[in-house]
Task: inverse folding
């Protein structure tokens, strides 16, 4: 069975606000964002948020 798919290229932006932690989101999808304590968690949360939006 051949799978059809598509490629999606997005720009992820990670910022460290003065109060600590990280905020992150995609330039192309302003409604997909996350706020978390570590960069590792930020990346995982952002991917989860994207999956929810695409579902």
Result:
């Amino acid at each position: 069975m051949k799978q059809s798919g598509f490629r999606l290229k997005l720009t992820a932006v990670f910022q460290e606000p003065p109060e600590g932690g990280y905020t992150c989101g995609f330039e192309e999808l302003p409604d997909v964002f996350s706020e978390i304590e570590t960069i590792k968690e930020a990346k995982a949360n952002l991917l989860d948020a994207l999956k929810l939006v695409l579902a």
Remarks:
- Strands lie at 12-15, 22-26, 29-36.
- DSSP finds one helix and three strands in the chain.
- Residues 13-54 form one domain.
- The chain has a mean pLDDT of 88.
